[in-house]
Amino acid sequence: MTDTTYSDPNVTPPLAQAVPLGLQHVLAMFASNVTPSIIVAGAAGLAFGGPEQIYLIQMAMLFAGIATVFQTVGVGPVGARLPIMQGTSFAFVGVLAGVAATMGLSVALTACIIGGVVHFALGAFIKHLRWLFPPLVTGLVILTIGVYLIPVAIKYAAGGAADFQMQAESFGSLKHWSVALTVIVIALGVKFFTKGTLSASGILIGLLAGYVLAFALGMVNFAPVAGAAWITPISPLPYGFEFNLGAVIAVTLVSIVSAIETVGDASATAKAGAGRDATDEEIAGATYADGLGTAIAGVFGGLPNTSFSQNVGIVGMTGIMSRHVVTIAGVIMIICGLIPKIGAVIASMPLPVLGGGVIVMFGMVAAAGLNVLAEEKMTRRTMIIIAVSLSFGLGLNLVPTAVQYLPGVIKTLATSAVAPTAMMAIGLNLILPKEE
Question: What confidence score (pLDDT) does residue 274 get?
Fold first, then answer.
């Protein structure tokens, strides 16, 4: 499918072709989209498989779909009107998990709303900020996100992330690891030994295989699924509105990084599908849609949205640039988000199943960061910036007591991994003289 007719974003393939293509976009990002909500819910102390966690998963699906429609259909200056799929961002997980664990979801979601508004405002001058975020900085941030999340993946695969789960006798059991490894083996097998839609859905198929094995081993509890409604109204400010300056600053800093990531995805989409550079209007529209989607999601209990890079790959693979195909994908996600039964099925997934999937996903995030860093020539200056930024960012996260006397909010920022890495990388890149 490389018909040049479809290099125009405004052309729609026949419906019989457009719907499967839209579903392919959903399958490629589905697992990555709901995972951040599960992690933040766990950090906030919500019961695994409970109604509050189910609600957060619903919001992840619903607002990924809504933000995608903002992006593809557009309203005024909002939206790139390119085939860009939106989803819940991994970049915010470290900060939001820390805030949710120490201050609660009300503070975390309030920060998301305000951060989304700031993110939206960035659309007016995003092109003037790009020089602050060369591949050296963005690559370091993406690498840090992946490395920060990998221990969470290992804990899930072993059977838990909370203290009481890690102290349980079953933690790290062969049963848990057999399920997690099944997910990994199936996902990689499907990804590399099949083609097309099947290959793009490798992680999802691996999760389904692990789910079936976990069910056979008696690890699945379907009680929350039976108790979940088919349709439920969504609630504005479900956890209230509680302002905290430090949390807002932390989320806003990550929002700037997320905005730059979206600029890259918009550029990559235009290049992959139409062989051209993205226009300033498309880049600004993509940023507006990012911020608006994040702010509205926060109002209803959803986490921040961003463009999903794996879906750029689908555009390049199929050669179909139609934004209306991705609009169909957005509508599918909206429908999923309005049905609590779907959220309950996802929430009933045992932790080792999810762990197997996120070992691959988080590893890929780290690998994507390395891929971006590969654009930089490894001079002494570059290596010093990488070394110092990673040492501070990951070091303070691994040894949080090293900054135990900092005020609570600043401590949360300092131990979030992403924020100190980003600030150190930006600062050093501006200060250290360029080498001849």
Answer: 66
